[in-house]
Specification:
- This protein is α+β, with helices and mostly antiparallel strands.
- It contains 13 helices and 15 strands.
- Strands 1, 3, 4, 7, 10, 13, 14 and 15 form an eight-stranded mixed β-sheet that branches. Strands 5-6-2-8-9 form a five-stranded antiparallel β-sheet.
- Strand 3 and strand 4 form a beta hairpin.
- Helix 2 packs antiparallel against helix 12.
């Protein structure tokens, strides 16, 4: 059998199209040693070059293409107006019959709760006792104390047209408390947007009994935006807010290797980390919004267990959440100016304003300065296969027909030679 295998290998080496393999059966030992060294060196070079091609393929597998933003889904953000933690604390003390000593603790308590920070245990005890006395949960109390949106947002003007604020804004539970939110879908949209749309709001952020000027906050959120923070508004000032964004849309379905981002509908890294912390603590944040696709959500955390969600350390190590494949980074620039001499203006939005308790906010959606990038993948399995095949063909002479030749030898010729060597040839009887 050994001699049959050697004969088959020798015959293959003499007739193969692979580079230099026929010299491995030379009668001279120096020829065989030299060509073994050459074949090994070529194989090493081919392996190193293939490794370089694969590493480059993993690092830069796509082209970044600037897309048209006119019909982009990120054009219109959600606009939310919220009472500041100080005003929410005062409204809570007014509706819940809080003592003067307890009312002093409420502003810092509400500030920490609405900004996701740890809260001292004695402050949580005060809040727990007040909620238990009125048989309410914390979200229910926030809904009860938050004024209606039509009382907090007096005038609304969208694209130079006055619209009822009740058609745009509704009270919603958010991570920053109960806010008046206008979703992007509620804004009237036309097929052709040839200019940057504007939204003007007149906010009544305080009443005659409230003395703190910073009594309102606002924030905007685009679809796919991960992190945002509210901007504090001061009564008696006009704010000009310019919004623009940079969006990256990653076509995850076209990737050839394992993705480093998540493409599930509704997925965000922030929500993934929230769900991970809830799984660790066994309860959910009371100031948490729920998505329609969520089926199993832990029960809300009691007040005494809220710090479990706030004090999770090494969150990136505990919760290995990936980035979303479709992400957006919003840039908000805010300018403010005091509202002086409003009686001399002809703009109807300023008519009859009491500048002591009101704020005017003008939102400008800067479509012309916003950009959307699409990741278009320029590598396919065929292009990668052709690159690797060219490398092997250059160094070893291994092509498509050579591969078929190798398969034919190992699948048919070599087994046939082994089988033939095991047959016993009996002499012919006379």
């Amino acid at each position: 059998m050994r001699s049959s295998v050697k004969r088959a290998l020798r015959q293959f080496a003499r007739t193969t199209t692979l580079h230099g393999f026929k010299y491995l059966c030379s009668l001279f030992c120096l020829d065989r040693v030299g060509w073994v060294a050459c074949c090994c060196a070529s194989a090493c070079c081919a392996g190193m070059l293939c490794g370089v091609l694969w590493a480059r393929f993993l690092q830069v597998p796509a082209l970044l293409v600037l897309a048209n933003t006119r019909h982009d889904a990120h054009q219109l953000p959600h606009v939310s107006v919220c009472p500041s933690p100080g005003r929410a604390a005062q409204l809570f003390a007014k509706h819940m019959s809080v003592s003067a000593q307890e009312a002093l603790r409420l502003p810092s308590l509400f500030h920490n709760l609405m900004h996701g920070k740890p809260v001292p245990s004695d402050h949580l005890g005060v809040l727990k006792r007040l909620l238990k006395a009125h048989d309410m949960t914390f979200p229910e109390a926030l809904f009860n104390i938050t004024p209606p949106c039509v009382d907090m947002i007096r005038k609304c003007r969208w694209r130079d047209t006055m619209v009822p604020c009740g058609q745009l804004f509704q009270k919603e539970l958010t991570s920053w408390g109960v806010c008046c939110m206008a979703k992007g879908e509620k804004f009237s949209k036309s097929d052709e947007v040839v200019y940057d749309p504007k939204l003007d709001l007149v906010l009544e952020c305080a009443d005659s009994e409230f003395t703190i000027p910073n009594s309102c906050e606002f924030y905007t959120k685009y679809h796919g935006e991960e992190w945002m923070s509210p901007v504090t508004l001061t009564t008696g000032y006009r704010f000009l807010v310019q919004l623009r964004y940079t969006a990256i849309q990653d076509a995850n379905a076209d990737k050839l290797v394992e993705s480093k981002c998540e493409s599930r509908v509704g997925y965000s890294r922030r929500r993934c980390m929230i769900e991970c912390k809830e799984l660790k603590c066994g309860c959910s944040d009371p100031l948490r919004t729920f998505q329609p696709y969520e089926t199993t959500v832990p029960p809300p955390c009691p007040i005494s267990k809220l710090n479990c969600l706030r004090n999770v350390k090494n969150i990136d190590d505990i919760c290995p959440c990936r980035e979303s494949c479709r992400r957006i980074q919003a840039i908000t620039s805010v300018e403010s100016a005091p509202m002086n001499e409003m009686q001399h203006t002809f703009d109807s939005i300023y008519a009859g304003l009491n500048t002591r308790v009101t704020t005017v906010v003008a939102f400008h959606m800067m479509h012309s300065d916003s950009k959307t990038f699409d990741l278009m993948y320029n590598e396919t399995w065929w292009s990668l296969l052709s690159s690797l095949g060219g490398v092997f063909n250059m160094f070893l002479g291994v092509g498509l027909f050579s591969a078929l030749e190798l398969l034919f030898f190992f699948i048919i010729k070599l087994p046939a030679a082994i089988r033939q060597s095991t047959e016993i040839n009996l002499p012919t009887a006379r």
